[in-house]
Design goal:
452 residues, alpha/beta, Rossmann fold, N-(1-d-carboxylethyl)-l-norvaline Dehydrogenase, domain 2, 3 domains, six-stranded parallel beta sheet
């Protein structure tokens, strides 16, 4: 049985380590945070990811998944050591902060015994693997190891499925021995005919950034198309459907909304742009995507202000959802962190409900009132704003919503509801990239007069 050490028990490290254990691998997850390790031993999970708590409990009980603060002991005797520590955006310049990666490399160098495959799982800029290899060889010239890049492609909220049924596995290395060990590690996926991409360190590192940069570009593109739709009376969802049916484009990530957030796209697009600039191969497309997305998030509050006829002073606003996406508790770079403060600045009284966002949100969104459910937030509100498309918001009792509100005004940043349905129920309904519904007029009026 292969032995794996996963350094870092954040989102990537904990999910990856647990899923490897589910494959039958002996996995030890290491973290410097003693409290977190003790909690994990008790089955207390520091993040919200559907199904993860059950997998951690089962594999811990079966003796395949272990948690420790002792890096040196866990690295000694491991066949593969993964570096899965954080690489947040560095303050001031947009680069990925690699201090945790390099710190882990130094500790690994001091602990290596026997041949080991050292693998970067963290998302890192091109050239990081070479630097990690250099750090280890300089610190421990006798170390017998090979360097590998194995980027993750996990979506928060569906990470276990993404690991167990991935579109592909990317492995960057120049060592045949390391490639063979990685192939053995991923054997359960190989048997499912999952594509395995073996390439160089640099290519592997760039694949991760290229993928996230392209997906972020699709989001920014459809969001800008949504603005055009609002000006000309087109429906962005129909536009996205018409585009997505083209096999060269595909339908995924063509959902107009308030802008992307989370742990990956914001920092990875910034890091890619900075790396490209340093290599004197600037990527104007990614730079434009970064700018477009930031402007997008900042402009969303204006939709709410306009729906309230420019007057938010002492208005109660119900906000449904603050995490950057459903099925996660992650608040990093969520559009809500731009939208809610702007509404507060305009004088609004904000009442929030999110199934998982309160723990982080209390610190990041001061001055809001946290509610126990959606209807509690909506009660006596002047306007309801949907920011995150949690499933429980998709089938609200709209008659009840209308009765609870002072005025039936809904701003839906995720296009959960149908304009025709909202019109029949008498809502003033504003969505993204679609003509607003105003029950005070018999028909929805196009924003411009058609030629001819």
């Amino acid at each position: 049985m292969l032995k794996v050490t996963m350094i870092g028990t954040g989102y990537v490290g904990l999910v990856s380590g647990t899923c490897f254990a589910e494959f039958g691998v002996d996995v030890t997850c290491v973290d410097k945070d003693a409290t977190k390790i003790e909690d994990l031993k008790k089955g207390i999970i520091p993040i919200y990811e559907p199904g993860l708590d059950k997998l951690v409990q089962e594999n811990t009980q079966k003796g395949r998944l272990h948690f420790t603060t002792d890096l040196k002991e866990s690295v000694r005797g491991a066949d593969v050591v993964f570096i899965a520590v954080g690489t947040p955006t560095r303050r001031g310049d947009g680069h990925a902060d690699l201090s945790y990666v390099y710190g882990a490399a130094e500790e690994i160098a001091d602990a290596l015994e026997g041949y080991t495959v050292v693998t970067t799982k963290s998302t890192v800029p091109v050239g990081t693997g070479r630097k990690v290899e250099s750090i280890i060889r300089h610190r421990n010239p006798e170390a017998d190891f090979s360097m590998v890049s194995n980027p993750e492609f996990l979506r928060e909220g569906s990470a276990i499925h993404d690991f167990m049924r991935p579109d592909r596995v990317v492995i960057g290395t120049e060592s045949q021995q390391a490639a063979d060990i990685m192939r053995q590690l991923y054997r359960p996926l190989y048997l499912l005919e999952t594509p395995m991409v073996f390439t160089s360190l640099e290519t592997s590192e760039l694949i991760k950034y290229a993928a996230n940069g392209f997906l972020a570009t699709k989001i920014a593109f459809i969001n800008e198309l949504a603005d055009i739709c609002e000006k000309c009376g087109a429906d962005v969802q129909d536009v996205a459907t018409g585009m997505g049916l083209d096999g060269r484009i595909g339908k995924k990530f063509l959902h107009a909304g308030p802008g992307y957030g989370g742990s990956c796209f914001p920092k990875d697009t910034l890091a890619l742009a900075r790396t490209a600039a340093e290599l004197e191969a600037p990527t104007s497309i990614i730079e434009a995507v970064v700018s477009s997305n930031q402007v997008r998030k900042e402009n969303m509050a204006s939709k709410v202000i306009k729906a309230c006829k420019e007057d938010l002073k002492n208005k109660k606003i119900a906000v449904l959802g603050v995490t950057f996406k459903p099925n996660t508790d992650d608040m990093r770079d969520s559009p809500s962190l731009d939208i809610i403060p702007a509404l507060q600045k305009a004088g609004a009284d904000i009442h929030v409900f999110d199934p998982q966002g309160e723990k982080e949100g209390k610190e990041l969104l001061p001055g809001v009132s946290w509610c126990t459910n959606a209807y509690d937030a909506i009660s006596e509100s002047d306007i309801t704003v949907i920011i995150t498309e949690w499933n429980e918001f998709r089938a609200l009792d709209l008659e009840r919503v209308k009765q609870l509100m002072k005025k039936p005004v809904v701003v839906d940043f995720r296009n959960i509801y149908l304009p025709d349905e909202m019109e029949k129920l008498g809502f003033y309904y504003v969505s993204v990239g679609r003509t607003p519904v105003n029950p005070d007029t018999k028909n929805r009026v196009l924003p411009f007069k058609r030629a001819g």
